UniProtKB/TrEMBL annotation:
The keyword Protein biosynthesis does not apply. Keywords: Membrane, Transmembrane, Transmembrane helix. The chain crosses the membrane at residues 35-53, 65-84. It comes from Thermaerobacter marianensis (strain ATCC 700841 / DSM 12885 / JCM 10246 / 7p75a). The keyword Membrane applies. This is Solute symporter protein. Residues 23-97 form the Sodium symporter small subunit domain. It holds the Pfam family DUF4212.
Amino acid sequence: MDAGLQQDVARHARMEIAARVEGHYRENVRLIKRLLLVWFLVSYGAALVVEALNRITFLGFPFGYYMAAQGSIAVFVVLIFIYARKMEEIDRRYGVDE
């Protein structure tokens, strides 16, 4: 194989790897943005509508209080598991899984 052909093959391989890395990064950022939106809505959205939430009772507590004390923490833990599962799928799709 001559040097010019080897350089072309190497350049093509680098471009393919760069495209995969960029796609992986783009999907990761998209996932993070969606999960941060859910986090924001649960954290701050619940605080904005606390009066309406307090009209609902959950386990004997006003729902606004419950969301501040326990519910938002539970949602955050669920978000962590969702992120881990979705990243495994994304990693597998781009061939960077472990």
